[in-house]
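ok so heres the complex, two chains, lmk if somethin looks off
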Amino acid sequence: MNRNWDVIGEQGLQFFGKMSATISHEINNSLAIINENAGLLQDFTLMADKGMPLDPVRLNSLAGKLIDQIRRAEGIVKNMNRFAHSVDEPVKSVNLDDIVELMVTLSARFASMRGVTVESKPASVPVMITTNSFLMQNLIWLCLDFAMDAAAAGNTIDIITEKTKNGAQISFMQAGDPAKAPPNKFPAEPEKVLLDVLKANLSADEGVGKIVITLPRDIDM
Amino acid sequence: MKVLLIDDEGELISTLAERLSLRGIDADWVTNGEEALKKVEDQCYDLAVVDVRMPKMSGLALKRLMAEKCPRLKFIFMTGHGSEDDYKEGTAQAGAAYYLLKPLNIELLIEKINEVIKEQGDKP
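and the predicted structre for the whole thing:
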């Protein structure tokens, strides 16, 4: 866990920044909806001051919308908290499905902007590995980002986790044909550095319809 | 004054349309660029209030396509990316259009809408 730390640090900061930006955007969207619904409530009370009767059903509906957005923001903040705490310990035992699920959630806006759907297919049993969870997230993001870039709008990318004899495997599979030529070489230097530190291997088919990462059970062994 | 609001957050844009209508502004809303282009084929709007970042078609790309169909259409952009740099870049790219940050201040939005009305009224 010490090789190329400068490179990993710079790359890790870029990843952290990208995820923080999308999280703040999502929170801001919730705040914007809360702002409009609270504003509409205020409009109704001002109209009531001028003699227009308040409609309790409408008020209740607006309150429900506010509660929904607060719950949505709460979910985003919980994920942000999980992501932020992933840098706490350099190496620890993690459930790979939890990490994949978090990355799918954090990548939702990037997928939506490209018109791509991303779905995680967890293993039937928990896939526990000992690794650096932050760098693992970074590697999953880079693979997913590449797969989304190569995907045609309307395609679905399935992320499948499996337990293997020596550890675990994550596959990124495109349900449809990749429409675009891969934009650049893959894996490139950022992925190679992470693969090295995580003692992982990556294979990608020629059309990049499938990317497979194989991971050891414990990177310290 | 007829306004078209475009944002992929349907709940945001529908509520904003209702708030504008309570203030006497006739506002329609859609949640993507394709629907917006269909709307401007059906009828003429004076102003489009557009989210900059939307799936499939960005607000700036949509502006170009809508402007081809309705050359007199005015634009106000809005964004949830609240950094000073984003704001400056957005204003520069948007040309003469206004650029507002989300969460929106409705009084500021109405002020900008009124400025657009005045500009259109001043034109021969």
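quick notes: Chain B has a mean pLDDT of 87. thats all i got rn
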